[in-house]
């Protein structure tokens, strides 16, 4: 086995019971059984406002759940974001979480005279476990994979998190029970490896 890691798994599906919840559970359970230290967070259980009404620079105070999640993120060496693609992007509640959680001074910092920020979350890697009803080839080649580009490039790598690897589970809507079980097995294998 690879060296054990501190892993934070965030199920970013706002629905408490979903295939994403099953993927997150399988990953976390297998990772823990393999000796990794795992914290599993369910977006549906967090209490916070998704709004950033005045933009960055005028952020409202973080709610207790977001303060705790920032501490979990600080401890983690590897982040696992599990979410569905809705309308080519992440669910609105997950986007709100990112807006509120990844604040200036915590995730990035601009310095006077610099065009690009200092990336404050360096030293962490990430895995995206992404479900979607759209076939993967169509999402990538026809739609340009907007959710992947946003999460990988514009959010995680912007904050210094790299490498960011992506696993797709699609198309979900017409998948069989056997196919879903294969996908859950794949998530568990990634968890065991801390990948």
- Helix share bin: 25-40%
What is the total domain count?
A: 1
CATH-derived architecture: 3-Layer(aba) Sandwich
Instruction: Report the C-alpha radius of gyration, rounded.
Output: 17 Å
Main beta-sheet annotation: 5 strands, parallel
CATH fold label: Rossmann fold
- Work out the strand percent: 15-25%
Query: How is the largest sheet built, in terms of strand order?
Result: 2-1-3-6-7
Description:
This protein has 195 residues and is an alpha/beta fold. The chain has one domain: 3-Layer(aba) Sandwich (Rossmann fold), CATH 3.40.50.360. It is 37% helix and 18% strand. It has six helices and seven strands. The strands form two sheets. Strands 2-1-3-6-7 form a five-stranded parallel sheet, with helices on both faces. A two-stranded antiparallel sheet has the order 4-5. The longest helix has 17 residues, at 177-193. It starts with 5 loop residues before the first strand and ends with a helix.
Q: What's the layout of helices and strands?
A:
Blueprint: E1 6-11, H1 19-33, E2 37-42, H2 64-75, E3 78-84, H3 92-101, E4 108-109, E5 118-119, E6 125-131, H4 136-142, H5 146-156, E7 164-169, H6 177-193
Summed up, what is this model?
The chain contains six helices and seven strands, in the order βαβαβαβββααβα. It is α/β, with parallel strands linked by helices and 195 residues long.
């Amino acid at each position: 086995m690879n060296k054990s890691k501190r892993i934070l798994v965030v199920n970013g599906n706002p629905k408490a019971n979903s295939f994403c919840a099953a993927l997150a559970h399988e990953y976390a359970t297998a990772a823990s059984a393999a000796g990794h230290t795992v914290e599993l967070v369910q977006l549906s259980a967090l209490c916070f406002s998704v709004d950033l009404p005045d933009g960055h620079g005028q952020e409202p105070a973080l709610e207790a759940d977001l303060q705790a999640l920032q501490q979990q993120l600080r401890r983690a060496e590897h982040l696992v974001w599990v979410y569905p693609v809705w309308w080519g992007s992440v669910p609105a509640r997950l986007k709100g979480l990112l807006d509120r959680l990844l604040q200036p001074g915590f995730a990035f910092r601009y310095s006077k005279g610099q065009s690009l920020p200092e990336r404050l979350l360096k030293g962490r890697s990430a895995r995206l476990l992404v479900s979607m009803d759209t076939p993967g080839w169509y999402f990538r080649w026809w739609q340009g994979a907007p959710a992947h580009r946003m999460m990988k490039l514009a959010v995680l790598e912007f904050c210094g998190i790299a490498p960011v690897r992506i696993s797709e589970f699609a198309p979900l809507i017409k998948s069989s029970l056997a196919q879903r079980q294969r996908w859950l097995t794949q998530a568990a294998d990634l968890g065991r490896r801390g990948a």
